[in-house]
Amino acid sequence: MTDTWTPMDDTNTPIVRSAPSPREGYNANKSQIGDDRLAGWLENEMDPDIMTVPGIGPATAAKIAQGDDGVETTHQLVGRFLTLKAPEAGSQEHCDAFWYWLQAKGVNQYRSGIVQCIVERTEIMMPNLYNQES
After folding, report:
1. Please, what are the domains in the chain?
2. How high is the pLDDT of residue 1?
3. How far apart, in whole angstroms, are the C-alpha atoms of residue 81 and residue 40?
4. 21: how many CB neighbours lie within 10 A of its CB?
5. Lowest mean pLDDT across 20-29, 36-45, 59-68, 118-127
């Protein structure tokens, strides 16, 4: 077993092909989603329209719908996040895997915000899945 965990896509290809620099990966402090917008999204029932997720507009929705691992609904996006949770991965690694998946899909804006929204939503649905300390 290796000391580091590498997130893999559906074809068993590493999402991260090289060691990330300290500035890469998920960082909740880099989210551009305002607290009010995040709270409003979390308070409402989850809408299947992926563009209701803060940070996802038409261009991002089109990018993440592409390919064999593409998603078209909010539910599928949550599912994609959950599939990236490896048993040995801590919360940061799990969030990084999703952040890098978004990067691989060509999402260059609001990546950390999208991750934050999905993390917060899944924490409501499944308490203790995400732990900011690990």
Report:
1. 30-125 (1.10.150)
2. 45
3. 21
4. 7
5. 20-29
> Which pLDDT score, from 0 to 100, does residue 73 have?
98
Question: Is residue 42 packed enough to be buried (19+ CB in 10 Å), middle (13-18) or exposed (0-12)?
Answer: middle
Q: Are 39 and 29 in contact (CB under 8 A)?
A: no
What are the Cα distances from residue 36, in Å, to 27, 54, 82, 93, 126? 19, 11, 25, 27, 22
- Could you report the per-residue pLDDT of 51-99, keeping only the tens digit for each? 999 999 999 999 999 999 999 999 999 999 999 988 888 888 999 999 9
Residue 31's pLDDT is what? 83
CA gap 3, 78 in Å, rounded: 27
CA-CA distance, 83 to 9, in Å (whole number)?
A: 9
Contact 61, 50 (CB under 8 A): yes
CB < 8 Å & 24+ apart, contacts of 73-76: 73/48, 73/49, 74/46, 74/47, 74/48, 74/49, 74/50, 75/46, 75/48, 76/50
Q: Would you say how long the chain is, in residues?
A: 134
